[in-house]
Every structure is written in structure tokens, then in C-alpha cells.
Write a structure and sequence with these properties.
mainly alpha; elongated; 219 residues; Serine Threonine Protein Phosphatase 5, Tetratricopeptide repeat
Length: 219
């Protein structure tokens, strides 16, 4: 069994304290274990969110454990002073409010704060995600130019990070935005590019999103 090195160090610290009377490392062990717990809570929340997305067409009931997992991660990362983890946790809390609860008003300030922290620590992955979801909020509010700018910037970051499936997902959103702006032919062109990119990289879920978008545009 592979064990996180921080857990192994905490065990060694326990043994030094109990058997040798050396208690100097206990505080460090607590901090390292808090970091492990924070990362685990964040990962657990992401898995729960993926499960929600997988079943939402049949059952959009919120998993009551999803938001508390992200909130626990946020509390721990903040206490540890880990800005990167704080920003990522805030992003996921914003996603719960936006995607699960359909509450853009609550989500947007969380996503904006996540964006700002991601910029501060140069966390391009979280920045790309936050920009995407801010673009979704702009689209929902009818702010088409702002939505286009957010999704375009998110796509640039995803492309630079070697995430073609993520780029294709953003292109679906850009297709919807073009359609809402009265540019149906351009929207279909964007969707065709998204489809080719998604198929080339095995992003089957994104292919289905493209097909749904095309159906909505009457193609």
C-alpha cells in the first residue's frame, strides 16, 4: 500500500513523542495532516460533483456532502495559509452554487475571488476554470461580449496547458454565444471545430454536448 509521506512522518513523530519523549514535531505533524485532509476533502468534493453531472439529466438532486467537502477544504487551506488551495476551494464552492443550485448571484463573487487568488499565485488551471464559469454567468445574464472574452481567455489557458478537451468544451459555449448574438452560421462553424477537436482526443462527453447544441440550432 502506498502511503502519503506526510502520514508516514506523522506516524514517526508519534513514535518519537511516545517512546523517546521528543514532542518537537507534533505541531508540524498536525499542519501536514491538515494539508492532507484539505487535499482529500477537495478531491472528494470533485468526485461527488462528477457523480452529480453524470446523473443530473435523470436526477438533479444535490449531494448534501458535496458543498461541505469543499467548505472543509477551504477552512483548512485558509488556516494553513495556502493561497492556491484556498482559491481552488473557492472556485469549487462557486461551481456548486452555479451548476448545482443555479444561483449565479451567489456564485459570481466566489468565482471572482477564486480568479483573483489564482492570478496571485499563478495557478493557470484554476484561473482557466474560473474564467470559464464567469463566462457562463455572463452568458446567462445576457452579457455576450463579456462571456465571449472570458471563454476565449479560458481557452487560451487550456490550450497552453495541453487540454484540448477543455478547449472543445469552451468552444461549445462560444457556439451558443455566437448563436445568441444572431450569428448562426458562425456558431455552426465553431461547433464543427469543437466536434473535430473533441473526437480527435476521445472527449465523448463533449461530442454529445456539440450534438445537443446543433440540435438546438436546428441543424
Amino acid at each position: 500500500m502506498v502511503t502519503d509521506g506526510r502520514i508516514e512522518r506523522a506516524k514517526a513523530c508519534y513514535e518519537r513523542s511516545v517512546f523517546a519523549g521528543d514532542h518537537a514535531g507534533l505541531d508540524t505533524a498536525d499542519r501536514e495532516l491538515d494539508a492532507v485532509e484539505a487535499e482529500l476533502a477537495l478531491s472528494r468534493g470533485r468526485v461527488r460533483h462528477a457523480r452529480f453531472l453524470a446523473r443530473r439529466d435523470l436526477d438533479a438532486t444535490e449531494d448534501p456532502a458535496e458543498l461541505p467537502a469543499f467548505e472543509r477544504a477551504l477552512a483548512l487551506f485558509r488556516a494553513l495559509g495556502q493561497v492556491r488551495g484556498e482559491g481552488e476551494s473557492l472556485f469549487w464552492i462557486g461551481v456548486v452554487h452555479q451548476v448545482v443550485r443555479r444561483d449565479h448571484a451567489t456564485a459570481v463573487p466566489l468565482l471572482e475571488r477564486a480568479r483573483d487568488l489564482a492570478i496571485q499565485v499563478e495557478d493557470r488551471e484554476t484561473l482557466a476554470e474560473a474564467l470559464r464559469h464567469l463566462g457562463i454567468a455572463d452568458h446567462a445574464a445576457g452579457r455576450l461580449e463579456a462571456a465571449r472574452e472570458h471563454l476565449t481567455r479560458s481557452s487560451e489557458l487550456r490550450r497552453a496547458a495541453g487540454q484540448p478537451a477543455g478547449v472543445a468544451a469552451n468552444m461549445v459555449g462560444l457556439g451558443y454565444i455566437a448563436a445568441a448574438d444572431g450569428r448562426r452560421d458562425h456558431a455552426l462553424q465553431i461547433l464543427a471545430e469543437a466536434d473535430a477537436l473533441a473526437r480527435a482526443h476521445g472527449a465523448h462527453a463533449i461530442v454529445l454536448q456539440v450534438e445537443e447544441a446543433r440540435a438546438r440550432l436546428g441543424q
